[in-house]
Amino acid sequence: RLLLRRGATGDQIAQRRSARELAAALRHLPRDTDPAERATLLTDLGLAMLLVGKNNGAAQLHGAVDVLRLALVDLTPDRHSDMRVTVLNALADAYSSLALRGADGMLERAFAACEAAMALCSAERTPLLWAEVRNSQGVLYLMRAQRGDRDALALAIRALEEAVWKRPPDVVLLKRGESLHNLGDAWTLSALNGGLGAAEAAIAAYEEALTCRSLDVMPMQHATTQNSLGVILLHQGRRTGEAALRAAAAAFRASLAALGPHGGWMLRGMALGNLGKTELELHRHGVAGSLDRCIAALEGALAVFRGIDAGPHAQEAERILTLARNAASR
């Protein structure tokens, strides 16, 4: 469980080790083990598998779902309500991660898990648990908004602002950083849709999130926020010019540097793809060497996405790579 806590900060070696050791502990549990103790061990294993799955492929995510559902069997709403909230919220996270990889029906399952969790907690009695679930709801509404639901974006921003409010920096700094990052994502989508002042709100949220997600303590989360900050700067650069584009490229490179040479494959592919898009824009502004850097980044992104079976992302990287190669051949 110490390894699991380290894994939650982005240490991928700790994530894999915790999953292996928790699975071994589960296999050696005596048959007469208290059901709640067994459920706790299953929950920890499910959380470890979820962390591994987010950085790798869908198989581990499906495994996390199976383990977390087993944990629910031994957790009754009347005796283990808080633990049940934790498991349901983790299930929502696993389902939403599968939805991001294109799995059918998973977003609806994630919403159902969140609703079941919210029925068991309250902002007054269990404010930190409530904030956990509210944060998850905000992420799910954001996913709906990204799929074209016009009403969902306002719901996402409201849920995430409430989660930030219930996660004070002197109590849960890392969790506050998570909600601030997600709020930045929501404001970014608003900016992409033309929302007045949304880009500035997104940048402010990401910059505050980075103060909570330091490179030395949470390298994976730091990398995630740097990538998202780059996205909104890329959007600004397309309107305002080279300075913002250079800032975007710097953010994407900071994201890749925080990841290091191993792991974080989904995020690595996204950062490489975004860097490729940015370099293509810089090429259009006449920046020397940017087209070569664009092609190299997109080739790297394509290799990563194919390696983790992220089909839609691979198709998008291949589309932009074709544009870049066509530009290079002129």
Notes on the protein architecture:
The protein is built from 15 helices and no strands. Helix 10 packs antiparallel against helix 11 and helix 11 packs antiparallel against helix 12. The protein starts with a helix and ends with a helix. The mean pLDDT is 92. 78% of the residues lie in helices and 0% in strands. By secondary structure, it is an all-alpha fold.
The backbone outline, from C-alpha atoms, is: globular
* Helix content, binned percent: over 70%
Low-confidence stretches: none
Q: What is the rounded Rg?
A: 20 Å
Tell me the β content: under 5%
Total number of helical segments?
15
Global structural class: mainly alpha
Salient structural properties:
mainly alpha; 78% helix
Question: How would the blueprint of this fold be written?
Answer:
Layout: H1 2-8, H2 12-27, H3 35-55, H4 58-73, H5 81-100, H6 106-118, H7 127-146, H8 152-165, H9 173-192, H10 198-212, H11 219-240, H12 242-259, H13 265-284, H14 290-307, H15 311-329
